[in-house]
Specification:
Structural class: mainly alpha
Number of strands: 2
Number of domains: 2
Order of helices and strands: EEHHHH
Largest sheet: 2 strands, antiparallel
Radius of gyration: 21 Å
Strand content: 5-15%
Strand order of the largest sheet: 1-2
Distance between the termini: 60 Å
Length: about 140
């Protein structure tokens, strides 16, 4: 927790960031203050995207936001979040494979995970709605024979 002196109505201002809660975030259930700091710090669109999806305080925070936000979260944002989380999982698989000895199985798993990253990146671009109509898109690559 960072303490900053204040010249106004409080003696000092305390700022809680991800580094400040890194030790206490490992204990479950999260205390209310830690859950709130985690909620604002991780900035995930969905409870399912968080590591602490079983925490009751976080569940309450996300349900409250969902009630208040209504339909403001677009389908594009939801699709992008799904793609980002899927890519994170593939990257975890790739990082787990790094220390393993080179075997045929490792090569296959790496190829599958790389294909998964490429696929979700393609989906993210396709569903993001960020296409620029002023620029003609590149044609698909030719088939190799």
């Amino acid at each position: 927790m960072k303490r900053i002196p204040s010249n106004y109505w409080v003696e000092k201002c305390c700022i809680i960031d991800h580094n400040a809660i890194s030790e206490v975030i490992r204990t479950t259930p999260l205390s209310s203050m830690v859950a709130i700091a985690y909620f604002f710090g991780c900035q995930k669109l969905s409870l399912l995207s968080t590591e602490h999806r079983d925490d009751l305080t976080l569940q309450k925070l996300y349900s409250t936001v969902k009630e208040q936000a209504g339909d403001k979260i677009t389908a594009e944002q939801s699709a992008a979040e799904v793609c980002n989380q899927t890519n994170l999982q593939f990257k975890k698989i790739l990082n787990t494979l790094n220390p393993m000895p080179d075997t045929l199985l490792k090569k296959r798993l790496r190829a599958y995970a790389d294909d998964g990253v490429l696929y979700t990146d393609t989906c993210k671009c396709m569903y993001s709605g960020l296409s620029n109509t002023a620029v003609k898109p590149m044609p698909p690559p030719p088939e190799l024979s």
